[in-house]
Amino acid sequence: MIRVGVIEDHPLYRAAVARVLTEAADIDLGPVADSVPGFAVTREPAGCVVVLDLKLRGVADSAAVHKISAMGHRVLVVSAHAGQDEVLGAISAGARGYLSKDADGEDILHAVREIAAGNTYFSPTLASFVLNSARGVRSLLSDRERQVLSLLAAGERDADIAEAMSISVRTVRSYLERIRDKTGRRRRPELTRLAIEEGIT
């Protein structure tokens, strides 16, 4: 089960997100609060995925991300404010994912599951901010995804990548699909060029 908390100061949206999480069979809903201090007083053990709004009363924006991350939780920002400054500020403060509030319930569940599995997740439109930032694609991809991308850039086939990493071809293709979703690059030559540009070779 994935333990998930919510920090959101808009009552209707907070209730809607809590309902989506409650209805998912693999999620255990943790504290639901309207502020960072309100969440903190619950003393939730470290390791929770926290769905966090940015524009809160009191502790807000990147400071809110930093405070929740410092408690040992993994932060998924879901905010109506999704400009480049907000996205990069949240990432710098430790956010593992970022969605705008036009994301539907399935998007939120998918992001939560990715983050719980140790990955990062950004909606494709927001991923471009990360790719265009000085931190580059390294901030966007997990260690395993970077390894797959590096082997792809070296000209290895899916079967060769699977053998080198001791995983199945199906898992390699799953990693590649995640890389495509995160970077917006679909074709192998585009992914190879991206790896070279970012020094992931």
UniProtKB/TrEMBL annotation:
Signal peptide, first to last residue: none
Keyword Methyltransferase belongs to the record: no
UniProt xrefs under SMART domains: HTH_LUXR, REC
Domain Response regulatory: 3-116
Sorted UniProt keywords: DNA-binding, Phosphoprotein
The UniProt record lists the keyword Metal-binding: no
Modified residue annotations for 4-aspartylphosphate: 53
Start and end residues of each HTH luxR-type domain: 134-199
Entry-linked InterPro entries: CheY-like_superfamily, NreC/VraR/RcsB-like_REC, Sig_transdc_resp-reg_C-effctor, Sig_transdc_resp-reg_receiver, Tscrpt_reg_LuxR_C, WalR-like
Gene3D superfamilies linked to this entry: 3.40.50.2300
Name this protein carries in UniProt: LuxR C-terminal-related transcriptional regulator
Native organism: Amycolatopsis pigmentata
